[in-house]
Amino acid sequence: MTDSTTARSHGEEPHLPGLAQRLNWLRAGVLGANDGIVSTAAVAVGVAGATDAVGPVFLAGAAALVGGAISMALGEYVSVSSQRDSEHALIAKETEELRTDPDAEFEELVGLYEKEGLSHETARTVAKELTEKDALRAHLSLELNIDPDDVVSPWHAALASAVAFTIGALLPLLTILLIPAPVRVAWTFVAVLVALAVTGYVAAWIGGAVRWRSMLRTVIGGALALAATFLVGTLFGTAIG
Questions:
Q1: SS3 state at 206
Q2: Are the CB atoms for 84 and 114 separated by under 8 Å?
Q3: 67 C-beta neighbours (distance < 10 Å), count
Q4: Cα torsion at 171, 177, 183, 188 (round to 10°)?
Q5: Which of 172, 159, 237, 234 shows the shortest CA–CA distance to 39?
Q6: Spatial contact of 175 and 184, defined as CB atoms under 8 Å apart
Q7: Distance CA 227, CA 233 (A)
Q8: What is the pTM of this model?
Q9: What is d(CA 64, CA 169) in angstroms, rounded to the nearest whole number?
C-alpha cells in the first residue's frame, strides 16, 4: 500500500498535532453555546410569560447572558486548570523517575509493551529505540496517555466557552426581542430547538457518538426547560396581575 493510499484510508482518524487543544476548544465551545441557548432562553421565556413588556425581558435576558458567560468561562478555567496541573505533576514525576532510576523505567516500559502483546525481544527492541529517541515521551504516551506538547490550555477553554455562550445566548434573546408579542414565545421555542439540534449534532460528531440520539436528548431537555420556565412565568404573571 502506498503512502498516499494509507493517508486516504486514515484521513478521518484523529492523528493531527495539537489534537487535545483542538478538541478542548470544540468541547468548550459546543457546551458553552448549548448552555447559552438554554439558560438565556429559559430566563427570557419565563419573563415573557409574566409580561408582554420588552424592558423586563431585555434586562433579564441580558443579565442571564453576561452572568452565564462569566460563569461558564470561570468554570472551564478552573476545570481545565486542574487537569493541566495534574498533567504537569505527572510529567514532573516521570521526569524525576527517569533521572534517578532509568534502568527500572526501561524495564517498566518493556513490561508495558509485553502487556500490549509484543514478544519480549520485540518489546525490548521497541523500548530501546523509543528510549534513545525520547524516553520521557515514550513513557508518558504508553503509561499515562499524555503528549507533553499537547497539554490543554485553561485560557483557551475559558475563552471558547465564554464566546460560544454569548453567541448561543444572543439567538433566543434577539428572537424574543424582535418578534411581536403575540408570537414571540412560539418563535423563540422554534429557534431554540433548531439551534439545540445543531449543537447536539456537533457534540455527537466531536465525541463520535450517535448523532440522532444526541440531538434528541438535547432538544427534549431544552424543550422541557423552556416549557417549565414559561409555565412559572405565566403563573407568576397571573398571580401578580
A1: helix
A2: no
A3: 13
A4: 20
A5: 172
A6: yes
A7: 10
A8: 0.71
A9: 8
Closest CA to 150 of 160, 139, 137, 159: 137
* Residue closest to 235 by CA, chosen among 17, 67, 47, 107: 47
Residue in 34, 26, 76 with CA at minimum distance from that of residue 199: 34
Q: Are 143 and 93 in contact (CB under 8 A)?
A: no
Q: Is 116 helix (H, G, I), strand (E, B) or coil?
A: coil
Q: Are 141 and 147 in contact, with CB atoms under 8 Å apart?
A: yes
Separation CA 79–CA 158 (nearest Å): 10
Taking the chain (241 residues) in runs of 10, the rounded mean pLDDT of each run is: 45 48 67 88 88 89 93 89 88 90 90 88 90 87 77 81 91 90 87 89 79 88 87 69 44
Q: What is the phi-psi region of residue 145: left when phi exceeds 0, alpha when psi lies from -120 to 50, beta otherwise?
A: left
Distances (CA, A) of 178 to 57, 89, 101, 154, 173: 11, 51, 68, 36, 9
How far apart are the C-alpha atoms of 206 and 14, rounded to whole Å?
11
Distance of CA 169 to the CA centre of its chain: 17
Cα torsion 147, 149, 153, 159 to 10°: value is -120
How far apart (Å, rounded) are the C-alpha atoms in residues 188 and 68?
A: 19
